[in-house]
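Ticket #4471: structure export looks truncated?
Reporter: QA, pipeline team
Priority: medium

Steps to reproduce: submit the single chain below to the structure queue and open the exported record.
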Amino acid sequence: MATGVKAKVLVKAAPRALSRAQVVHFYGVTQGPGPSTEFFRDLKGVDGIAAVEPLECGGLICWISRVPEADFARDLVKNMQDLDWLAAVSTRHQEAVSAIARAADILPARFGLEFSNDLSLRSHIDTRRAALKADFQRLQGRQEWGVKVFALPAAPLPKKKFRTGKEYLQAKSALSRPASCPPDPPLSEFAEALESIADRIAEGGKFASARRDLEFHKVLLLKRSDRSKLEALIRNFSRKWKGQKRVECTGPWPPFSFVTQTESPAL
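Actual output as written to the record:
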């Protein structure tokens, strides 16, 4: 009798494990076949477990992972308050997008764009087909670069222990540059030089804007063929500003800042 009871328990538990609810996490869309799945043999999805896979969407290829509904839909807002969790999953999202971008032009999706199923994603793509076509034409062969200029010497945080993250952020805010800083002629010259080689320029993110020593932060959309022009420009101004300013250039990245954005779908 005891053996029979155990067998019943196992039979009931198995379907529950197999029926784990999932949603479709969206990384971005490419034209044509794109890279083969062999390209992603060792690449893990946004949750660190799921595969990155292609999904045909009316002539376009959407790149997705099938991830737990609880983590990425039902509890997503709460999970995003956990900075460690958010850092891990957003980094994996960007790694997946960057991997695809090395093999094909991709219109990257921002982190947190989830769909209830394949049909929901295909419907979303259908409604945006005209905008996607325009973005592909505008962004083909182009990459995103981040450019920052820091004053030297760097402004250090006070040497004290912070009891909470809030105290740390308040200390950083106290070191932030005044909003009424007058225009800096050398920076204006630098901005004009960047505009002469870039297709488009956008404001940089707000994350680093609290630093007092940050004087300039822009994001560039640049043709791949113009990379050498950017590198030469950065070298030139770095020499000119030696000991006065530090230029930081990061990239290339998929064009996250220049894709036409859309509202998140209702799951």
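Status: closed, not a bug. The export was complete when the record was re-opened. Leaving a note from the reviewer for reference: Strands lie at 22-31, 53-57, 60-68, 106-108, 114-115, 142-151, 200-203, 214-223, 245-253.
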